Structure formats: C-alpha cells, structure tokens
Amino acid sequence: MDLKSKLEILADAAKYDASCASSGGTKRDSLDRKGIGSSGGAGICHSYTPDGRCVSLLKILLTNACIYDCLYCINRSSSHVRRARFSVEEVVRLTLNFYKRNYIEGLFLSSGIIKSSDYTMEELVRVARTLREEHGFRGYIHLKVIPNADPRLIEEAGRWADRLSVNIELPKPESLERLAPRKEIGAIRRSMGQLRGSIEEAPRAHGRSFAPAGQSTQMIVGADDADDSHILQTSASLYSGYRLRRVYYSAFSPIPDSSKALPLKPAPLVRENRLYQADWLMRFYGFAVGEIVAGGEDGMLSLDMDPKLAWALKHRERFPLDVNLASREELLRVPGLGVRTVDRILSSRRVRSLRTDDLARLKVSLRKVSPFLVLPDHRPTKLLDRADLKSWLRPNAARQLDLFAAA
C-alpha cells in the first residue's frame, strides 16, 4: 500500500480521538538554526484531513489494526475496515515534509494496540525520539499513552512529547468492563498517576521538562447509560486526582456491525457541547457538579439552554447583583459574563462607577446580563419576574435592539 493510501486510512481513523488540542505547550522556535519547527504554546487547530486542506496538527494513528475488541471502537479487531500501518520512518518523514510545506505545526500520534502494550508504546516513543534527536524538530508533539505499558517507556515518552494522554474511555468502570473487557480501569488510572507524579517532579531530560503541556483524557458520551451528572462527577474526580489539563468528551456514534450492547442512535452533539460548557463552569467559574446538574432531576443537562443560564434561572433569588459592588465569585455566575470580562469589570470599577454604556464598551451582551445586574442607570425590576424570561433571553433578530423595554 502506498503512503497516500495509508494516510487516507489512518488520518480518517484518528478523527474519533478529540483530545489533541495543543494549549499549554512550551514556546519554542528554530531561530538559532539548530533545529526545525516551532511551537507557539497557544491553542491551535487539531486535525488533518487528507483532502489537502491546511491544518495545524498532523493527526494520525500509527496503525488502525488492534488486538483488542472494544465494542464501541471502529478499529476493534472484529471490525471489517481497511487496515493500514505506518512505519516509524514514514511518520517522521510525513511530519517533516508537512511542516516544511506549512501544513502543520506539530504531530498528534495515537495507535491501535500492536502485539502488546509495550511494543506499541515503544513504536510511538521511537517516532518522537527520532523527530527530536535526529531532526531537531521543535514543533508540538502529543503522544497517546498505552495503559499497561512499561513505566520506563511512559517516562521516556514524556521526555519528547509536549502532552501525553491516557483515555479513560467510558465514565463508568463497569461499562468499560462490559464493552472493553481487555482494558482495565486500574491500569488506566495507574498510568495517569505515573504521569501526574512525573509532571509534578518536572525532571529535566535532554534540556526539556517532562510533558510541559500536561496530560489529558477522553470520555465517550452516550455509549452507556451514564447520565451527565455521573460524567461530570467522573471528570471532577479526574481533575482533582490527576491534575489533568483537559477532559474531552466525544459523542458516541453508531459504527458498522455494532454490538447489540450499544445504542442504536447517536448521542446528540449538543449534549457533548453542554458537557464542555459544564466542564468550563467547574474549572473556571467555581461551580460544583451538584449545582450544575441539580439533584432530584434526571441527572441530565438541558439541551436547549446552556448550564450557566439554567442555574441562574433556578436561583433568581440571588439576583440582581450590583455590578459595582458584587464580588468576583458572584459576577462569574452571571449569564453573559466570562472570566476576562469579569476581571475587566473589576479593574474598571476601581476608577469609576460603571453604567450600561461602560458594559457595552466591554463587549458585554446587554440583553443577556440585563435581568441579572443592577447599574446606576438600570434596575431590572420586572425582568426577573417574567415567566417567559428563558424565551426572552433568546430573542429573534427583530427584537435585539429593544434592550430594556421590559425593565
């Protein structure tokens, strides 16, 4: 099989792995002419499509052949898909050639399990080591860690890669046991624990920190019966237990010749989006899982409303807040205010009392915040009591200029 055909197969097979953002990477460049490539350290595009479009990361599998038979995976051993496998040298050559053509800034490399966990991990490490040592590549590298691999191989992977990730796969251990019997939640968590320890110790190896962009993981949403509350509880546990940079959520989609143990319908993509929004609230806005998914309900996030707005509408007694007096923690819970905007508000109000035109200059959506904030020239005396406030906060285009008509 020629290289182009392999690329088409293995780039397409990699699209199911969402955990490949490069946020948090160390800035590097080759201005000293001692290497090739650069890494900006900011979030960049994630994937490569084989139709020639320019993207930022070459996102591929080393092979889509796998000795495991995970029921939810298109590349499982019993799946009837076209198989392909790159050699280490082919991945290195592709990465360098694509960089020189300005297609990419780095590499995301995962793989099906070849022969054993150790053999597969060794091949992944060889790619990264060859790029760094033999070619002086300074672009971004993200490697997928294979659970049960020798800890020494995982340790070496961290010397060459910017980020490492171990997929938790499913939110419930019993689901993993049922749908992927050869994968062990204990092995996955041991690998995560090893990565956390090595990252925190930050050993110096060949002049580079250990996985400076940290570790991440991915969960499949909708392949089992886990509700959103359970998924977010699992994420909260992973963040606190292993100091992950990100938990990625991937909506389950039915695959050819799928098992009867799997759902017949795909998980709604909007559910995936709501989980990301809820995840953001946990990490940056001070929300607990129990606040985001209120107890006594079905444990699911609303699909027609973002979780921050849903929380605010359930807790109208906490509003309105005086924008010139409220604490940072209180302002972060106002729908329509993000972290940066809140920090700008706090900085600006030290100079003078803020009014509606000041919020407009800060690019705040006045319609979103108007029911929840008090300003010297605005008191939402009626807005919070509106029975149709939820609908009113999603106005049609013809009503968008009527900002305070109901105030």
UniProtKB/TrEMBL annotation:
It comes from the Bacteria. Its cofactor is [4Fe-4S] cluster. SUPFAM superfamilies: Radical SAM enzymes, RuvA domain 2-like. Residues 56-280 form the Elp3/MiaA/NifB-like radical SAM core domain. InterPro entries: Aldolase_TIM, DNA_rSAM_put, Elp3/MiaA/NifB-like_rSAM, Endo/Exo/Phosphatase_dom_1, rSAM, rSAM_sf, RuvA_2-like. Keywords: Iron, Iron-sulfur, Metal-binding, S-adenosyl-L-methionine. GO terms for molecular function: catalytic activity; iron-sulfur cluster binding; metal ion binding. SMART domains: Elp3. This is DNA modification/repair radical SAM protein. It comes from Alsobacter sp. KACC 23698.
